Amino acid sequence: MPVSGKGREKDESSSPGDRLDSWKEIATYLGRAERTVKRWESDRGLPIHRLPGGGKSSVYAFSAELDEWLQSSRELEAASEQPASVPVASPADMPTETSSVALAAEEGVKSSARPAEPAASAENALSLPAPASSRFRRGWPSAILFVSLTLLAIILLLRPLHGKWASPSSRTGAPAVSPAEKALAHDLYLKGRYDWNLRTPESLNRALDSFTQAIVHDPGTAEAYVGLADTYDLLREYSTMTESDAYARAIVAAKKAVELDDSLAEAHRALAFAERYGALDFLASQKEFERAIQLNPKDSVAHRWYANAFAVQGWFDLSLAEMKKARELDPTSNATLSDLGILLFNSGRSSEGIALLREVERSSPEFGSAHRYLMRIGFDTHNFPMYLAEGQKAAELSNDPALKDIIESARSGYLHSGPDGMLAAVYAMQKQYSREGKISAVYLAITCVTMGRRQEALQILEDAFARRDQYVVSSMLSDPVLLMMKDEPRYGALLKRIHFPPAPVRAPSIQD
Q1: Residue 386 located in a structural domain
Q2: How far is 180 from 293, CA to CA, in rounded Å?
Q3: Could you give the dihedral angle defined by the CA atoms of residues 130, 133, 139 and 144, in that order, rounded to the nearest 10 degrees?
Q4: pLDDT over 80 at 89, yes or no
Q5: Which uninterrupted H or E stretch holds 461?
Q6: What is the spatial distance between Cα 304 and Cα 333, in angstroms, rounded to a whole number?
Q7: In the listed set 236, 265, 296, which residue is the last one of a domain according to the structure?
Q8: Among candidates 275, 237, 238, 285, which has minimal Cα distance to 253?
Q9: Would you say residue 46 lies in a domain?
Q10: What backbone torsions phi and psi does residue 169 show, to the nearest 5 degrees?
Q11: Same domain flag for 145 and 88
Q12: Of 52, 222, 301, 492, which one is least surrounded by beta carbons within 10 A?
């Protein structure tokens, strides 16, 4: 399946401007050196966000917030130059949203909430001052007091999060969370789940913000950590976040959720997913999936993820049984129907799988998974018009620049030289993007097999396996094109290194 890397599109109605995803991009936008920008964040409250679990280097910012900060800094400079004395603001004048400050957990989980408005100093004030706004008209004393109160709020929030984590009931010295804060945290969690289910680049970023805000209001909420883990698991598919970053953060968040509430099925489910795809620990993943289902047999997502995680040769009966349970529990889920479609195709029931995916496509044309799966099926079955049509839709929905380039080149090659020209164009683009790390090299290997370049495909798979590309495992055990090489000694040697657990002795059969 010649799938490309991830793209991200912004929803201007819900995101605060364009997103800048590194210190370099932020510094370029502001026209300053990275060192200066980092100092502004530390000394002057530049609105920098950090991804949960990403450490100090995983930063991002929104252009609209940076513009607002610049304007506010200029207004503060103007206010500081006014000779008239100004009174200190009373508590009633202060902003009350002190809970939307940065959250830092033991593993570096940080909030993406907007920081407090910055207070500029005469030494670092920006040029071109603008008239003072009503919010800062009181001058420096009130601004300093506001910053002090905000810092105090940060300290109070961080105190219970340092040191070893324990369950909420066993932490000592942690400030109690009021019922109102708990209710607000739960509302934010539900909002995050709504956005998470939409599965678009912008909705997943909104979900990430909501789950992080929930943790700000209630640091002991395990469900919000589950939300973080689940969001990271999808961000590596629907955004530009790398596989290694996404799964590492998902594992941290999921383990935190399990520590906070071992009886929460969703926590074990999230950990099972991350262990399977991030750590490639299949036995640990199977154990966590079974624990999740034991705790909540009616969790359709746990059944679906379990089915997908073990949808390989020898396990197809079990996977189909689990997917059938997921469908019975949630018959309207497009994700379940799409995953069942590709599972049926991989297990040899191609016509059933294609028909189900077409049904999802007709009922929900904006749902990307059906298009991506049909794109892959078109390529695997040499139905190249289907591959091009579905690939175009998938690229547009995901706003994936790499996939757009691949499909555009493929279309041009097909028009000029037919299937051979299309394959040559796809090969060239995939080789470039896999070298740049924008797509999995497994897709290039599939193209090589289709073109008859088996030895090159084997070399690609060996190199990808050495880099712990998780797609190697899933694809080598399930993709019909790659399985055409199962008799190759090098392919067999790779399969032995995967150490996938043996299938159940008596796997349940499916009678549809």
Answers
A1: no
A2: 32
A3: -100
A4: no
A5: helix 454-466
A6: 10
A7: 296
A8: 275
A9: yes
A10: -75, -20
A11: yes
A12: 492
How many domains does the chain fold into? Answer: 2
Within its chain, how far is the Cα of 255 from the centroid?
A: 17
The answer to whether residue 80 is domain-embedded is yes
Strand partners, 61: 20
Is 160:219 a contact under the CB 8 Å cutoff?
yes
Contacts of 202 (CB under 8 A, 6+ apart): 8, 9, 10, 11, 14, 15
Strands, sheet with 19-20, edge to edge from the N-terminal-most edge strand: 19-20, 59-62, 49-50
Shared-domain flag, residues 136 and 55: yes
Which sign, positive or negative, has the C-alpha torsion 75, 51, 262, 297? Answer: positive
- State the DSSP string of 154-180: HHHHHGGGSSS---TTT-SSPPPPPHH
Query: How far is residue 74's CA from residue 51's CA, in Å, rounded to a whole number?
Result: 28
Rounded to an integer, what distance in angstroms lies between the CA atom of residue 304 and that of residue 300? 6
Is the per-residue pLDDT at 141 higher than 80?
no
3-state secondary structure 219-251: CCCHHHHHHHHHHHHHHHHHCCCCHHHHHHHHH
pLDDT for the residue numbered 97: 29
Q: Is 61 helix (H, G, I), strand (E, B) or coil?
A: strand
Q: And the tokens for 185?
A: 């945290």
Distance (Å, whole) CA 269 – CA 301: 8
Q: What are phi and psi of 263, to 5 degrees?
A: -90, 0
